[in-house]
Specification:
The protein is of the alpha/beta class. The chain folds into two domains: 264 residues, Aldehyde Dehydrogenase, Chain A, domain 1, CATH 3.40.605.10; 190 residues, Aldehyde Dehydrogenase, Chain A, domain 2 (3-Layer(aba) Sandwich). 38% of the residues lie in helices and 21% in strands. The protein contains 15 helices and 22 strands. Helix 3 crosses helix 4 and helix 4 runs parallel beside helix 5. It is globular, with a radius of gyration of 23 Å. Bound molecules: nicotinamide-adenine-dinucleotide (NAD). Nicotinamide-adenine-dinucleotide binds next to helix 7 and helix 8.
């Protein structure tokens, strides 16, 4: 991997503008390397390389052979697991064990989509006598992928894995805050035998390289993960060329806990669902809705757990690492200032270890109680380790609270009552519902995506393959 270069046509290419962006280590806030500052000219070169691959070697590769390339890539990711995990931990600040989990998931994405590549097919349709009609699933062509900084490897893997499996050629714009692992994986993809141009990475700022990708007329599909505001802007730019967009925009995901729940099982899951990756997870369980009868006892258990949480640099591998940047830290502080100003009680918080560098972007996990449902802490995505607790009286109120935000990505329901499990699974508006568990270990196989402002379209699982293809209907009249 070469410093401050894009990966275009399987070569390391200097940015057209010659400029670079410093890369900071969130654990100490200090620059440790730099990346290329991409421009519209770099994006154009990458789109052209992708088009050439799609019209050439990659487009001519059979589904089975695409699967073989992806399988080789999954084994190369596994063989380079330690290096990738170390790179991701340093770049994002996440604790090493989380970075290891991300590297494992990345290999698994490529393995899953390797196996799926030759299993996607069309149908034959009953029609008038004398006709045979069938459908074919075809790749879009050149797909654009705008990736955020919270899980660079995982989000790259889920999106690019499915796009390549279905025969698309990809142009990826990873986030300016964290993209080193993605560059390294692109190099491994070339080593795995992916033809030049089938996967291109252009680094840089969102408003420059990202916007140039979103509005490029040579793109046939965009997959975007990030904030609702940027998702809207990307959609508007893509609409200029009538390019379809898949959006994954985060959430304010509720965990609903009824009085009959197994609290000993629930508590560690409730805590890790908000503390994992310092709360910078689109599917973070950032609201806990608690049946009034167990409100105080459950808050006591959660408070005990929060008070024991320790925060430090990625290499210390504690419960929680730093936030990604000073900007993200200010955003979280702004929410906490509002909580304090509006008299929302802080029930507990973890501790930043004293060895953590003062220049790092730390925030102790914080449990807030009695959060009014109309307050922004109950409605907006903090994207930090802040859990908002509130009480409900009955099922109807629980559902109203759960559905009472603009988001709808993931929900957790904790109850032993089977009928209630089934009722609430239907009534809660979100893309995924977990009952007596949450997140299900990453779930490479499980379709993922939102409703309402959480976005639309599905990634992960076999379902993603439909999103990365277009359906063609062929009608043959043979008499
Ligand atoms: P963002 O949405 O601005 O950035 C995500 C990606 O979009 C990055 O690659 C960025 O470079 C790119 N981008 C930014 N502006 C662009 C533009 N005009 N055109 C095209 N691409 C553009 O997110 P952020 O500023 O890094 O974070 C802000 C908030 O977004 C966070 O606090 C959080 O709430 C949310 N977020 C959500 C997720 C998620 O997984 N759902 C991920 C990251 C951030």
């Amino acid at each position: 991997m070469e410093e401050a270069r894009h990966f275009i046509g399987s070569e390391w290419v200097a940015p057209a503008g010659g400029e670079t962006i410093p890369v900071l280590d969130p654990s100490d806030g200090q620059p440790f390397t730099q990346l290329a500052r991409g421009s519209a000219a770099d994006i154009d070169a990458a789109v052209q390389a992708a088009r050439k691959a799609f019209d050439g070697a990659w487009g001519a590769t059979s589904a089975a052979d695409r699967g073989r390339v992806l399988y080789r890539l999954s084994t190369l990711v596994a063989a380079n697991h330690e290096e990738l995990a170390q790179l991701e931990a340093r770049d994002t600040g996440k604790p090493l064990r989380q970075a290891h989990a991300d590297a494992t998931a990345l290999a698994r994405y490529f393995e899953f989509y390797a196996g799926a590549a030759d299993k996607l097919h069309g149908e034959t349709l009953p029609y008038q006598n004398g006709y045979t009609v069938f459908t074919v699933r075809e790749p879009h062509g050149v797909t654009g992928h705008i990736v955020p900084w919270n899980y660079p490897m995982q989000i790259f893997g889920r999106s690019v894995g499915a796009a390549l499996a279905t025969g698309n050629a990809c142009v990826v714009k990873p986030a300016e805050d964290a993209c080193l692992s993605v560059l390294r994986v692109a190099e491994l993809a070339a080593e795995a035998g992916l033809p030049a141009g089938a996967l291109n990475i252009v680094t840089g700022y969102g408003h420059e390289a990202g916007a140039a990708l979103a509005r490029h007329a040579g793109i046939d599909h965009i997959s975007f993960t990030g904030s609702p505001q940027t998702g809207k802007a990307v959609t508007q730019m893509a609409a200029e060329n009538h390019v379809p967009v898949t959006l994954e925009l985060g959430g304010k995901s509720p965990q609903i806990v009824f009085a009959d729940a197994d609290l000993d099982t629930a508590v560690p899951v409730l805590v890790s669902a908000i503390v994992q990756n310092a709360g910078q997870t689109c599917s973070a369980g950032s609201r806990v809705l608690i049946e009034r009868a167990i409100y105080e006892p459950l808050l006591d258990k959660l408070a005990t757990a929060f008070n024991a949480l320790r925060v430090g640099p990625s290499h210390a591998d504690l419960d929680c690492g730093p936030l990604i940047s000073a900007k993200q830290q200010r955003r979280v502080w702004d929410f906490l200032d509002d909580a304090q100003h509006d008299g929302i009680p802080m029930a507990a918080h973890g501790e930043v270890i004293h060895e953590a560098p003062e220049t790092g972007f730390y925030q102790a996990p914080t449990l807030l109680r009695d959060v009014p449902p109309a307050h922004r802490l109950a409605r907006e995505e903090v994207f930090g380790p802040v859990l908002a607790a509130m009480a409900f009286t009955d099922e109807d109120e629980a559902v109203a609270l759960a559905n009472g935000t603009l988001y709808g990505l993931v929900a957790g329901i904790w109850t032993r009552d089977g009928a209630r499990q089934l009722r609430l699974a239907r009534r809660v508006r979100s893309g995924q519902v977990f009952i007596n568990n949450y997140g299900a270990g990453g779930g490479v196989e499980l379709p993922f995506g939102g409703v309402k402002h959480s976005g639309h379209g599905r990634e992960k699982g076999f379902e993603a393959l439909y999103g990365f293809t277009v359906l063609k209907t062929v009608a043959i009249r043979h008499g």
